[in-house]
Amino acid sequence: MRGRQVLVAVIITAGALVSPPCCRHVSSAETRSELNNSAVAFESFREQFHRRYEVNSEELNRRYLYFQDAVKRHAFLNSFSTAPQSAKYGINQFSDLSQKEFRDLYLRASTDRAPLFSGLKIEGLPAKFDWRDKAVVAPVQNQQACGSCWAFSVVGAVQSVHAIGGSQLEQLSVQQVVDCSFKNKGCNGGSPSWTLNWLKQTKVKLVPQSEYPYKAKTGICHFFSQSHEGVVVKNFTAHNFSGQEKAMMGQLVQRGPLAVVVDAVSWQDYLGGIIQHHCSSQWSTHAVLVVGYDTTGEIPYWIVQNSWGTTWGDEGYVYIKIGGNICGIADSVAAVFL
Q: Are residue 104 and residue 42 in the same domain, yes or no?
């Protein structure tokens, strides 16, 4: 308890120093109460997510200020989410990161401009479809502090399509893709389209994760012999389904889970529910896996598997409203052929 008291004292002092003149009319009792509540919440956050900052350190004070910014941001984001199924925002494992740190660490995907989809819409689609119900979607993974989302989305699609084809579902090596996909930059970012093109051209066999485990850092490529067992990507498609999300639903049902690149800036604070607002498609910098959809309720939505672990979102999943290209979910959509 003593550590918490010291923390509160340090933060109240810091708060007094940075309090703007416009706000000085607020009573000292109110200010002290607000800071105490905030400090206790921060201490609870530190315990929950095992943060070990030194008391009185510059880093602790900086993290606390980022935490306060996050709490203000949550209130703003939640003000848009008034419907029962709307997205909710709050404290999670990213609440002590600045928005810039979050982007630099976790939003590292890039994409080429995909051609508009010009195929036919599939008629008679089910109102609800989820590849998880077919036992062909692997558990949620955690990329950790490595910008490898692009590799997780591609490998997720490949291993699901492999299982859809009749093979046993097996987690394939993300680390192999991070280390060996030479056009990409490992933990510093990459493109799902470039990755799929590399897999198609080189005929690299993706090996099981158990043979090439994930390390959350870029390493030296481990090559395997041609006789080694593995999964080969024969081809892929990448299209823009903006304005054609029903056709994208058809692709999902027909081809399997889809690797997409989205704008996930507001996902730093996401806790659950269906995202419908404040998620534009101007800066798509995060790759994820669309595994299903549900149009049976008032708000139709995509079911999206992320790679930030099961403590984020709804046990690692996020739901995006269908229609309007929310979060740019339809801008760059890749399907895999094995």
A: no
Which candidate in 149, 187, 279, 327 is catalytic?
149
Whether 286 is catalytic? yes
pLDDT beyond 70 at 106 = yes
Q: Return d(Cα 265, Cα 103) in angstroms, integer.
A: 7
Of these residues, 92, 184, 240, 306, which one is catalytic? Answer: 306
Q: In the listed set 27, 54, 82, which residue is the last one of a domain according to the structure?
A: 82
23 is an active site residue = no
Which residue in the list 74, 162, 239, 286 is annotated as catalytic?
A: 286
Count: domains in the chain? 2
Whether residue 278 lies in the annotated active site? no
Query: Model confidence over 47-90: pLDDT tens digits?
Result: 999 998 888 899 999 999 999 999 999 999 999 877 879 999 99
Report how far apart, in Å, the C-alpha atoms of 259 and of each of 76, 158, 221, 291, 321 are. Answer: 30, 9, 23, 9, 17
Closest to 78 in 3D by CA, of 86, 70, 67, 66: 86
43, 105: one domain: no
Q: 3-class DSSP state for residue 281?
A: coil
Q: What is the pLDDT of residues 26-48, one digit of tens each?
A: 345 554 555 567 888 999 999 99
